[in-house]
């Protein structure tokens, strides 16, 4: 489960939070932010550290402020499937549910804005803005899960890689409040091993397809952690999605 709260190194006001416009508090007014500010704490998890175990009680829930966490399920015989990613502004846990359904593990250094579950649930019951945003986020999660069913079940290796890059590019642009356009540069928060695990591919296939997209001019590797997209429509075409539609960002 999420561990007990710790003293944060530097207090951040909710109004100054970098994920404020996408997080669960996106619709809250200043008086409501003050109430959230009074019950929150921060915790940082190192890469590979477990944030929550499937089936265990959740005393604390919260939003990813920075970094990426993976959602996975392990079967009785040890087989494991990664079923989702938690990116900045995504929410860990669900009010009204005593446990988490999947293992949550930090893919890189992850910082979480956390609330005691009981205190957050009490505030949600009195705050329509929080209720509405939680509902929206839940519906977005449902749409994303359906998109990933299509990706894992029907798309080719190249389409899987292009789809993941398009999603990460859109989310990065949204968080930094940029327009998704040609020339967009975004950070790649996952190792190729993590990408392979998530997409059901081998590391060699991931590397080969990234190289192929680079050779075709669809992406440019600025460095080991940053990618530039010269033509975003071309990336969407490679993903197998319509350039005017596609996956939930």
What's the CATH architecture name of the largest domain? Sandwich
Distance between the termini: 28 Å
Q: Please give the radius of gyration in angstroms.
A: 18 Å
**Spatial strand arrangement across the major sheet:** 1-8-3-6
β-strand number: 11
Instruction: Give the CATH class of the largest domain.
Output: Mainly Beta
**Percent of residues in beta strands:** 15-25%
CATH superfamily of the largest domain: Jelly Rolls
Helix/strand-derived category reads alpha+beta
Share of helix, binned? 25-40%
Average pLDDT, all residues: 86
Low-confidence stretches: 1-10, 245-249
Biggest sheet: strands, sense, closure?
Answer: 4 strands, antiparallel
Fold-level CATH name of the largest domain? Jelly Rolls
Number of helices: 7
Counted up, domains total 2
Explain how this protein is built.
The protein is α+β, with helices and mostly antiparallel strands. It has two domains: 14-147, Jelly Rolls (Sandwich), CATH 2.60.120; 156-239, Arc Repressor Mutant, subunit A (Orthogonal Bundle), CATH 1.10.10. The protein is built from seven helices and eleven strands. It has helices at 30-39, 117-124, 128-154, 157-175, 192-199, 203-215, 232-239; strands at residues 40-45, 50-52, 60-66, 69-74, 80-86, 91-92, 103-106, 110-116, 184-187, 220-223, 226-229. It has a four-stranded antiparallel beta sheet with strand order 1-8-3-6. It has a four-stranded antiparallel beta sheet with strand order 2-7-4-5. It has a three-stranded antiparallel beta sheet with strand order 9-11-10. Strand 10 and strand 11 form a beta hairpin. The relative contact order is 0.13.
């Amino acid at each position: 489960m999420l561990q007990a709260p710790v003293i944060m190194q530097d207090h951040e006001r909710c109004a100054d939070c970098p994920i404020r416009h996408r997080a669960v508090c996106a619709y809250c007014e200043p008086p409501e932010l003050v109430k959230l500010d009074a019950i929150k704490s921060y915790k940082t998890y190192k890469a590979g550290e477990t944030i929550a175990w499937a089936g265990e009680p959740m005393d604390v829930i919260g939003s990813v402020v920075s970094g990426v966490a993976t959602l996975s399920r392990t079967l009785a015989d040890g087989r494991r499937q990664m079923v989702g990613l938690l990116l900045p502004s995504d929410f860990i846990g669900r009010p009204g549910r005593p446990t988490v359904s999947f293992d949550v593990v930090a893919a890189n250094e992850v910082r979480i804005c956390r609330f005691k579950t009981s205190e957050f649930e009490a505030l949600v019951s009195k705050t329509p803005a929080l209720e509405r945003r939680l509902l929206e986020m839940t519906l977005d999660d449902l749409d994303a899960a359906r998109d990933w069913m299509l990706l894992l079940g029907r798309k080719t290796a190249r389409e899987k890689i292009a789809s993941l890059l398009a999603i990460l590019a859109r989310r990065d642009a949204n968080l930094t409040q940029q327009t998704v356009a040609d020339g967009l540069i975004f950070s790649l928060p996952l190792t190729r091993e993590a990408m392979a695990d998530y997409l059901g591919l081998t590391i060699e296939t991931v590397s080969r397809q990234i190289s192929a997209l680079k050779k075709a001019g669809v992406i440019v590797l600025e460095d080991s952690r940053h990618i530039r997209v010269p033509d975003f429509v071309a990336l969407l075409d490679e993903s197998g999605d319509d350039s005017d539609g596609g996956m939930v960002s």
